[in-house]
Amino acid sequence: MLESKQIPKESIVFSILLYLCGFLLFWEWLRPLEVISDTGNMTLLVLYAGFCFFLSILRVSAWISVPLKIAGLLFILDGLFMQEIITTRQWLMVFQTQLQYNTEMIMEQQWTHLTPFFRSLLFLILLWLMSYLVHYWFVIARRVFLFILLTFIYITVLDTFTAYQADEAIVRTFIVSMFTLALSNFSMQMDKESLKPAYGNWFVSTVIPIIIILPLVTILGYFAPKAEPQWPDPVPFITSTADYAGFGEGGSSTTQKVGYGEDDSNLGGSFIQDNTTVFEVEASQSHYWRIESKDRYTGKGWERSTELAYQTQPNGNIDLDMHTEQVDTIQQYASVHYTSDANFSKVVYPYGINNVSNGTHLNYLLDQETGIIEVEGPEQQEGSVYFDLTYQYPSFSLNQLEAAGGDYPAPIEDLYLQLPNSLPDRVVDLAEEITAEDQTRYDKVKTVESYFDHNGFTYQSEDIAVPGRREDYVDQFLFDTQVGYCDNFSTSMVVMLRSLDIPARWVKGFTGGQIVNNNPNGVSSYYNTYQVTNNNAHSWVEVYFPGVGWVPFEPTVGFSNNADFYQEADADPDSNDEQDAEEEVNAEEEEESEQEHQEDEQALGSEASQDGAALWNGYLLVGLTLGLVIIAVVLFFARYRLLTLLFIKRYKHFNDERSLDKAYHFLLRVLQHKGIKRKQGQTIREYARQVDAFFDSNQMTQLTGYYERMIYRSDATLHDHEKILELWKNLLRRAWS
Amino acid sequence: MMQNPVSYHSQISKVLDNINKVIIGKEEVTTLSIVALLAEGHVLLEDVPGVGKTMLVRTLAKSLDCEFKRIQFTPDLLPSDVTGVSIYNPKEQVFEFRNGPIMGDIVLADEVNRTSPKTQSSLLEAMEEGSVTVDGQTVDLQKPFFVMATQNPIEYEGTYPLPEAQLDRFLIKLKMGYPSEEQELQMLEATAKKHPIESIEAVMHKDELLQLQEQVGEVFIDKMVQNYIVQLVKGTRNHKAIYLGASPRASIALMKAAKAYAFIHDRDYVIPDDVKYLAPYVLSHRIILKPEAKFEGIDTTSLVSELLAKLTVPMRKEYS
């Protein structure tokens, strides 16, 4: 092959490779759109972008490429939005109507009224234009760095401030960028030196270093230890602050009022404290008040997988089998008074419920699976409703739990081991990892229960993330935010246990509430009155143990499980007493601590909002810094151009030596910046000739003549001010033209 | 590419034109000769015979209306053959001094390296001192006094190389070089009927030349440019391939030459370009290379160019 033919061939190969890299980088710009906006049909958009890029690299004339691109654009629009057959009259009519309508909307600045058709059209045109821009940057100007920098900024900003996870994107971008920089650098070297490398040489000097260094650096970077995030994930804050920011969720409010609600299909988001009393309880001790459980985790929240099947419970004798006979129980009584603020009609009940009554003739309906007890009566009393509850409060033997093994009944396995397919593997991995050393099921359950407390998870009710379109609620909590309230903790525990094949379910209800009055009837101190407010709404976990039944667990940090557990003492009876006493003390302490916690919680509310403000300030600072950095970068790159404007404005005439000196040296700098390099040892006259050769003029030599006279003659008398100024300005303009 | 036409001092330009009528295609050599003449220095022309060395000097002398003398150096030439001798006049009963060939305005010392060192030194002393001493009698040489010595390339047989100390006396060392084919053809055409030197007239008087020499002395040279010269000369003393660098006399010579060169170009101040242009002609014969450098085929001219390429040119005033 002829030598002369080889060089363009190589440079074409370089251009194509560079442009391909440009496309890959541009793709990284498109990828997040799926997550952060409600852009659908991503593949089509990427294909169209690829099509435009492809046509650009072919360098076919505009007469061919423009119609092709328009055709592609219309084809996509047709496929997405039009029922009519393309190019028919109707089709054209619809098309025209769309354009007309949207043009009007633009004129009226009704941006939100633009139709998806028109928005897609604009976006496709944008893709088209981007293909030109990238072509210019990568192939013609060979200035790839700016685009790479912008890509990195774009990805990192999205990663930080939106739900988009750029973990992979950053690695991909890094690899492509390294490759691009290597290519562009080498091709620039080739242009500059007009090298004519033999094919083998070229291969050895570029490809091999890239092949060696790129994977090496990538692997090294991938496995190298990385610093922890320096500030908390701002996404929850942003999503909770910007209710209508429109991150694809249709602007649904993510802040809820705390309390019991039916719909748990979309968990997450902050809630507002609500201290309204829902019911008051007279009971001998503080219990968790159960309402229902849910069995199917969707990745976003909880649903029921079975229809509710209510069965009438005659005489209020509730036939809810939660535990086997082997569980020790104590018969207890309690009465519950609902206030008018209670927004639900279900019965709240402690574990071991077996009778509900309230004097009037009411029907009690029970759904066995969820444990919902509905009340059906001739008329619902306005105001306060009360129920008297009789229950066999269970006390679980730790030995029994430790020993519980064997297979689960089929219905339990069917319902309570369900996990969504979309559950990220790392959740399962984590569950397996932390329980690897545990021998028994019970140990595993306890390990998972205490995992959150031991690993710095924090309880917080504000600024809580809502999982994005592609995110998993549990995954987000376990790995990203690690901040949340009971739903986060309980759901995570259930999901982790299920991933370990331990049946578990998610339970809703209320915590025990606050003691308002000891000894309410003035008769006995056996009963206390507990006030339960909306703030006490809670969710926890029940785990199934064969031979025992459903046992409650409390993973939420700051809460303690107030179910009774006991160790069967087979040693001496004394220690048993001691232990009992100890446990009682513990229970009291726990109660106190819980009350404190609830008080704290309210304090936390305001603190959290202060935190929010601080956080906001932090982002403002980061944003400001980022802005300043960008401005600095822009100023840096445009410094000569800006200075030129400044200098031209400043020097209306050169009335003294010093101003000419400054102006002349500035011109030298501009010229050097524009690529006319002055060699060491070159005199200004020689350089002037070089510049003039470049511009095909003699202005630089003329100007240099004046300058020479000034510096080498020490001649401060400048004649021909105007001429000098004109020459200088002309040269500056030429440098920028 | 457009370039500023090189502007010359009007009187000098006449002389140059006149000479270039006779010496075809050697503008650079001509200009440099005039630089040496105006700087009151002398020229060493090194080249093979027959390339027009003599003709150059003769033309120069004729154009400037100067007295032309020629000394052909041979191995048996005595110093008195150069300087002149005192002869006893029996009538007057005194020794009378007979001017030697050196008592001319423009002297061509042909094949100066073919004579003995003793005779060489008599010439060189006269060049440096501007006077000759014969029999204890010192005679000042007239002005202008301009010596153009030629020497055969030193590798030739029967030569006495000029010692360094004496080479230093020449302001500029030049090489004539062969003309191009075209120029040679032009030369033949011009000399076909009558030698062109016959037809040229003087374009300047000797006195005018003296005046110009004085004016050259007044050409301004800035401290920056002086420093540039000093740095350059200093560079020759520190270079690893150089055994003996240029002397301070070289700095002075370079400055003088630069002034003359600036003057020829109708400038009353020296710019670094002048220094840069002249440095190879002024410095290369004042430098002695190390033997190993010589073996490597390095020559002094390229060394000076190398130094120039590395030396930063002063181009900014220091404002206090």
TrEMBL record, chain A:
Keyword Transmembrane helix set for record: yes
Record SMART domains: TGc
Keyword Ubl conjugation: no
Region spans: Disordered: 567-607
Domain Transglutaminase-like: 478-557
Entry's transmembrane regions: 12-30, 42-58, 70-92, 117-138, 145-164, 170-188, 200-224, 616-640
Keywords of this entry: Membrane, Transmembrane, Transmembrane helix
Acidic residues bias (residue ranges): 567-602
PANTHER family: PROTEIN-GLUTAMINE GAMMA-GLUTAMYLTRANSFERASE
Protein name (database record): Transglutaminase-like domain-containing protein
Lineage: Bacteria, Bacillati, Bacillota, Bacilli, Bacillales
UniProtKB/TrEMBL annotation, chain B:
Domain ATPase AAA-3: 42-172
Keyword Nucleotide-binding: yes
Pfam families with a match to the protein in the record: AAA_3, AAA_lid_2
UniProt cross-references to InterPro entries, sorted A to Z: ATPase_AAA-3, CbbQ/NirQ/NorQ/GpvN, ChlI/MoxR_AAA_lid, P-loop_NTPase
GO terms of molecular function: ATP binding; ATP hydrolysis activity
Transferase among keywords: no
Residues of the ChlI/MoxR AAA lid domain: 236-306
Protein family according to the UniProt entry: Belongs to the MoxR family.
The protein, known as: Magnesium chelatase
